[in-house]
Design goal:
The complex is a heterodimer of chains A (115) and B (114). Chain A is mainly beta and 115 residues long. Chain A is built from no helices and eleven strands. The chains are: A mainly beta (115), B mainly beta (114).
Chain lengths: 115, 114
């Protein structure tokens, strides 16, 4: 499968625990995005990488959130000291360098439930 | 302010009847416009995109959208709904100068009945 892969697909954690999600983008795509989707809402932008450089972070990304893309390939999103409000679907997308109309490809997401 | 608005949170149609999902945007510049579909337990899939080459855009599965600059709209249509079209549809905008990040509408849930 050459699409965007996200692991795990589901994660249930207790409040206060740390969690880490992984995203493997399409191999030739140098741009990688993280989005968060809460129930009944559209996805909201969290952060963006071009190769290994994190170029933009949303104000939604509090200090408890950190994202990395160490070698410009896969990316991880870590949430420290999880809160119930962090429960959401976390989506990863990748796209190649190109014009603004270039398509972004999405993974199936990681659904986080904080209990 | 730059924004995207989907006017209906829920649309219900009978199988075989036309589908209209409405989307308006607000922007000082010409953005890139997309429609994505999300089926339960599946990833977001691109239906179509506006690239400024033509105002009427054809997508997959018989969907179309027309870009109307004067109305700042990008409504999604399909002549005849099929049961498999039932899903969540997102109007998505990539605003100029936003590092290619996407801004999603709140979504429209399409229900198709027999």
């Amino acid at each position: 499968d050459t699409g965007v892969s996200q692991n795990p697909r589901h994660k249930i954690t207790k409040r206060g625990q740390n969690v880490t999600f992984r995203c493997d983008p399409i191999s030739e795509h140098n741009r990688l995005y993280w989005y968060r989707q809460t129930l009944g809402q559209g996805p909201e932008f969290l952060t963006y990488f071009q190769n290994e450089a994190q170029l933009e972070k949303s104000r939604l990304l509090s200090d408890r959130f950190s994202a990395e893309r160490p070698k410009g390939s896969f990316s991880t999103l870590e949430i420290q000291r999880t809160e119930q409000g962090d429960s959401a679907m976390y989506l990863c997308a990748s796209k190649p360098q190109g014009g603004k109309a270039t398509e972004a490809f999405f993974g199936q997401g990681t659904r986080l439930t904080v209990v | 302010a730059q924004s995207v608005t989907q006017l209906d949170s829920h649309v219900s149609v009978s199988e075989g009847t036309p589908v209209l999902l409405r989307c308006n945007y607000s922007s000082s510049y010409s953005p890139s416009l997309f429609w994505y579909v999300q089926h339960p337990n599946k990833g977001l899939q691109l239906l179509l995109k506006y690239t400024s080459a033509a105002t009427l855009v054809k997508g997959i599965n018989g969907f179309e959208a027309e870009f109307k600059k004067s109305e700042t709209s990008f409504h999604l249509t399909k002549p005849s709904a099929h049961m498999s079209d039932a899903a969540e549809y997102f109007c998505v905008v990539r605003f100029t100068g936003t590092a290619s990040k996407l801004t999603f509408g709140t979504g429209t849930r399409l229900q198709v009945t027999l």
